[in-house]
Design goal:
Layout lengths: L2 E2 H9 L1 H8 L8 H18 L6 E2 L5 H13 L4 E8 L2 E11 L2 E7 L7 H16 L4 E9 L11 H4 E5 L1 H5 L4 H13 L21 H5 L13 H9 L15 H12 L3 E2 L1 H9 L5 E9 L15 E10 L5 E7 L7 H11 L6 E3 L2 H14 L4 H9 L1 E3 L2 H4 L3 E2 L9 H8 L12 H13 L7 H29 L1
Parallel strand pairs: 1-4, 2-3, 5-6, 9-12, 12-13
Antiparallel strand pairs: 3-4, 4-5, 6-7, 8-14, 9-10, 10-11
Bound molecules: iron/sulfur cluster.
Length: 478
């Protein structure tokens, strides 16, 4: 068994995560996670083009990759996917460049900027490369250039940004010591005993969270909103909400704590009534679904720009008559123009546009107005009509213990009604996005009638949920 770069990175997050990973006992990745990994591969191809003389050493066979790398290094050849093993450690470097009698090391990351974990990753690679006798001069992270806008054929130089991180990587000195400790963990028969900590969410949400966090009491301090305070209490041994000092709670957390302990929803009827009385009918309940790609797919888009490909719109009048409209792109072309043209005919000119978490929808509309200036005027009017249905929940005018500390639509809906996204095939926006992307844009999975129906049902429930929530809030204040 070898300690690879990815295992080293898991060890930096948590010993227990490393141990489970080394035994291939981590839960399956979601569709959305798989999409992120694939995006990384797409970007690599562009980064490689920055090194026209580079040779690609990719080889499914581990031993062959090591042999090819040894030869490339002997020949002082710039290479991609350079696999190197030393003692019990192994790393594969994205790019090793031979220049001016020394080697430069590059890590390709499809993010819009360099991150602290990239530096740690490179420090491990540098340790192994230097251990086999290479002189590493400069160290870089190649990321996407966040300001790049696609206009026709992509120029790899414009798409990428190269960050010199040599001094940051050289500052990290404890690599060998850590690597030894991590290697002992993967050899050990015993599961490491680890306390929950902020590492469970950083730098990535740990895939073992459901398992590890299930040991907490049902009404635990992590239901609260104040991160600083709940970690302080947790480290002081206070795990159960019944034990928290009530006089130290912030108002929102006091609402959560009291509602949870009394097992009864908190309702601020007066403020909810004001919110409902201010609504201007007909209500246009609206929701976008979007996908993102690191390397932009369409002209006039940037890396990781959210591209709306679907919407659901329920129009509700004061007598609760409801009409449903929907849009779901059916091709691999830029869906935005057709989406806007249809939406303009359906979204009316009067009445509030109800969304859940307005920041996301407003940002999408602003981007659409920027990228399609011919639609700017009516889009700006749409933005001015937006009302955020998440607001009563963000302001804790209503809190139900069934929300389990969350204010998301996915938690509010089943807390208030007998409906839930769990009744659907697609249960979250990340998976909807990934399924559309692979079936319609990349054509890697079949665009079946069933898949399209599932996408439509998913988005439809988001806006139907908003009607149900408005109606339920009305009942509560009557
Ligand atoms: S959930 Fe936390 S304690 Fe459990 S393995 Fe992950 S990081 Fe470690």
């Amino acid at each position: 068994m070898l300690l690879s770069k990815s295992k080293y990175m898991k060890g930096l997050q948590c010993d227990r995560l490393l141990w489970f990973d080394s035994r291939k006992k981590l839960p399956e990745y979601s569709e959305a996670d798989k999409m992120k990994f694939e995006e990384g591969h797409d970007f690599e191809e562009y980064a490689h083009k920055l090194f026209p003389k580079g040779v690609n050493l990719t080889d499914k066979d581990f031993g062959n990759n090591l042999k090819k790398t040894k030869k490339a290094i002997e020949n002082k050849q710039t290479c991609f996917e350079a696999g190197v093993a030393f003692n019990n450690y192994y790393s594969r470097s994205d790019i090793l460049e031979y220049k001016n009698n020394a080697w430069n090391l590059y890590e390709i990351k499809s993010s819009n900027d360099k991150k602290p974990e990239h530096i740690e990753d490179l420090a491990f690679q540098k340790f192994i490369l230097e251990s086999i006798g290479l002189k590493i001069k400069n160290i870089y992270v190649i990321t996407l250039n966040r300001d790049f806008v696609k206009k026709g054929k992509i120029d790899p130089k414009e798409l990428t940004k190269i960050h010199d991180v040599t001094s940051e990587v050289n500052h990290i000195t404890a690599v060998e010591q850590r690597a030894k400790r991590f290697f002992n963990i993967i050899l050990s028969e015993d599961i490491p005993e680890i306390d929950l900590s902020r590492s469970c969410n950083s730098p990535y949400e740990c895939p073992l969270k459901d398992q590890c966090w299930s040991s907490l009491p049902e009404n635990n301090v992590f239901l609260l909103t104040n991160h600083h305070q709940y970690w302080k209490w947790f480290h002081a041994g206070i795990e159960d909400l019944k034990d928290v000092p009530m006089d130290e709670l912030k108002p929102k957390d006091e609402i959560i704590t009291k509602a949870t302990l009394k097992k009864k929803p908190y309702v601020n009827k007066e403020e909810i009534k004001k919110f409902l009385d201010d609504l201007k009918y007909p209500l246009y309940h609206f929701d976008f679904e979007t996908f993102q790609s690191g390397v932009p797919k369409f002209d006039n888009t940037k890396p990781w720009q959210q591209i709306p490909f679907q919407y659901s719109l329920h129009v509700q009048d004061e007598d609760n008559n409801v009409i449903h409209y929907e849009f779901l792109s059916d091709s691999d072309k830029d869906p935005r123009k057709a989406l806007l043209e249809q939406l303009q005919t359906e979204i009316g000119t009067e009445g509030d546009i109800i969304v859940f978490n307005q920041t996301f929808e407003i940002k999408r509309f602003e981007e659409l107005a920027r990228d399609f200036p011919e639609h700017k005027e009516w889009i700006n009017k749409v933005i001015s009509r937006i009302v955020d249905l998440a607001s009563p929940f963000n302001r804790f005018l209503y809190y139900n213990p069934k929300q389990e500390g969350s204010k998301s639509l996915k938690k509010v809906l089943p807390a208030l009604t007998d409906r839930s996204h769990n009744e659907l095939e697609i249960t979250n926006g990340g998976d909807a996005s990934a399924l559309f992307y692979y079936s319609h844009i990349k054509n890697e999975i079949k665009k079946t009638k069933e898949l399209r129906e599932n996408l439509l049902k998913y988005c439809e429930l988001d806006t139907e949920a908003m009607i149900l929530i408005v109606n339920k809030l009305k009942e509560l204040v009557e």
